[in-house]
Amino acid sequence: MSQPVVVQGLTKVFFDDARGEIRAVDGVDFSCQAGEIFGLLGANGAGKTTTLRMIATVLAPTAGTALVMGHDVQREAEQARRALGFYSATTALYPRLTARETLEFFARINGVPAAAVRARVDELVARFDLGEYADTRVDKLSTGMKQKVSIARTLAHDPPVLVFDEPTVGLDVLNALEMQRTIRQLRDEGKAILFSTHIMSEAERLCDRIAIIHRGRIHACDTLAALREATGQHYLEDIFVYHVERAEEQGEAGL
Amino acid sequence: MSFDLAAVAALYRNEMRHLLRDRRTIVVSIFLPLAVMPIMLFSSHWLEQRRKARLETTTFAVAIDGSQAEMVRSLLVQAQRLRTARGEAFRFRETPVAEPLAALGEKRVALVLRGVTAAEARAAAGEEAARRELEADRRGEGGEEEEREAVLEGVPVVEVLFRADRDDSQAAATAMGEVLREVRSEGRFALLRSAGFPRDPATVLPVTRDNVATTGQVAGLALGRLVTALLLLFMLSGGAVVAIDSLAGEKERGTLETLLTSGARRQDIVAAKLLAIFSVALLIALIQVANLLIYVGFELIPVPAGFAAAVPPPVAVLLFFLYLPVTALVAAGLLLLSGYAKSYKEAQLNFFPVFLLGLLPALAPLLPGVSLRSAVVVVPIANAAVAAKEILVGVFDWPLLLVSWVVNAAAALLLARLATRALSNERLASPLAAEGERVPGPVAFQRQVLRNFAVLWGVLLVVNSNLPASTDIRLQLLVNLGVIFLGGTLAMVRIYHLEPAQVFALRPVPPAVWLAVAVGAPAGLLTGVGVFQLASLFVPVPREMLEALGEALLPEGLPFWQVVVFLCLAPGIVEELTFRGALLHGLRRRFHPVVLALVVGVVFGVFHTSLFRIAPTAFIGVLLAGVTLLSGSIFPAMVWHALNNLLGLAAARAGLPLESLEPPLLAAAAMALAAAFWILWRTRSVYPDLRGERRR
Fold first, then answer.
1. How buried is residue A159: exposed, middle or buried, by Cβ count under 10 Å (0-12/13-18/19+)?
2. Does residue B436 carry a pLDDT above 70?
């Protein structure tokens, strides 16, 4: 079986009437295996979100391909989406649904058979400890509870691939740690996890492999140990700066 | 397009659940109109009744003046006697005032009756006309024109002066008019009798009016004229609340991205949302109608006599089915509006013009004499409105009803498809954090290519209109081809960092293609002549247009080799690089290949700024675009183009009038052209990265 996520030469060029052409992602290659957390590490605007949105089929690549469980994100967008769960700080929940209704709804539209929906929702409610709040409307829940419902929503159809796009943005320390714990658990359950962040410590702690992305290009992609060895730097922050500076130098040299 | 019914059902349920839990929406979209509409109708009716009643019982104060005031007074006395004899009220009372016109202005009297002699009346009329003209000049409009009858010498005249800006004055003037006409008739009859008229003059030439329509039909017409607009009003205002919340609201809340990254398909999402808006719009319209009927039943709102007879249950059912696709159309239009708005606020802003646009066709039955058996049947909404009127009057055609049903349903489907596309359009579907490096590149070129060609065209126009007519044709061509076309094209390649080999489709072709070119170029030239001759049978084609096909601008006194270089080779190479190269490359993903060939051809035609050359060059341009698209290379088009020009010029030089060739020869040419394209098709190596290879 091929890898759950395979990305080759993925490119996204935006066009904005005021600003002209913007090359947000420029020929990105990577893959992610089952039971792995693959991190995209980059500053704001580096192309992380655009890359993940292309994988989630919200954006169409200008060039290149991305396969999710073997499904091409352009030609088999629907199958690709059914094989993944997408979580980001901007993917909101329906405020007037209860937690249980939310999970039911997303299970159904992601193709969970009607007979299995209830059991799946109960399972998620139990797993995320939502019992007490399952019948409370989402807009009445605390941030932490909303976050739990949101992750549970992402898992509603038990997808093999999970995409977390800067999931800890806007969370306090405890909630962020809780999020990391959940992601680690999911990895241990065998999910292939794409994880983007601009926080070095988070990437250091969580990712099995890290891709350093800058100006739409991946400049290094390996395990933390290998990255350390290649650069002679210990801290991820230094490794990151090392690659970004080299990229800038190359850019100035016109390469 | 297929639907996953389970997903659509889940999405629909979610949509409705979300809506029903929004108390504000329910109040605004259902309860408020439910209460407001009848209150509005009822209160306006009540006010109108009161106004009428008040005017009917008022006794109007009248001022009388003029040299013939006594004559006026005696007329009023006669009138009062006539009315009293019939047992009717006489509702005028003279009020003595010093300055009647001032009194009218100060509302002390409702009318001024002025008795004047014929001469005075004429003089006053002349003055009035002059005054009016002056005033109209000043304001650019005319005041309300009063009735003015011909004045007979020696006969006194009664002038009724009133103010149209006052209810009481206007009502008094109308009533006074009636009274005075009665007195006048009575006076005339009395004269006739005294002159020995043998019968009662009132019985001469009686006129009667009989309405043979049933009261139901009359009420049906009144109702039919407005029912669609009224229903549409309900549907639009009710549906909008859901629609705006549906896509624009989801965008704003961030739930749309959650939805779009789920396994649900775009068409399922649109279908469910459409169904939600449809059901709410329909429900609200039905509730409103039921609501109105209840009020009508309790006689709180007045309706024309026979109203109940106009809408028997079968008619109501028929109308219901007629309005189903209209409701779907309204729903799809609203969803589209919501889909194209980036926020809730933007959707609300856009709603008003859409609202007016939707209501406008619903007013079609107000047009005099409009019937469904006309072009109206293909105009969405307007057709249903006219059909509804015809159904209510009871005179209608089943086939035309069916056509209008289908037209509305098709329009709804079309809009729904556009809404689906809006969801796939990433600029609309998701808030883009488009950051990264800014470079002018191939994508920007695709978006700006037409704009760039418009600039190129402007430059061409300006330069050519400023070149003196005596300029050597070689210099003209050097400027046009060498500087504007080639220079402009190369500038685009440079600015957008394009790959010349790709832009100009510099690819080798199999030998068979050259055979196609050898056959196709002369055949294409002659076919062009044939096509325009054929067209001239239907629309007049100027002779200049036919001659232009043969590149008849044969320059005098140019050696033949220079003719070949400047008029055949140079255009063949440069114009192909520009149009079948840069233009076609830039537009390749924007249009379907067939449309692409047409667009490239038309733009090419428009660049030949002489009016008569546009159509013929566009024809050749389409052929050349076809050649390039099928062979995937620009070289065959270059050779074809050069050959085309060469043959045209050769024919002109030999004095061979291409435009007067016989039809059989032209038909043979068309077949040869078809054969050339058949060869191109068989050996095709299609232009890469066309729109046909769809991405999604």
1. buried
2. no
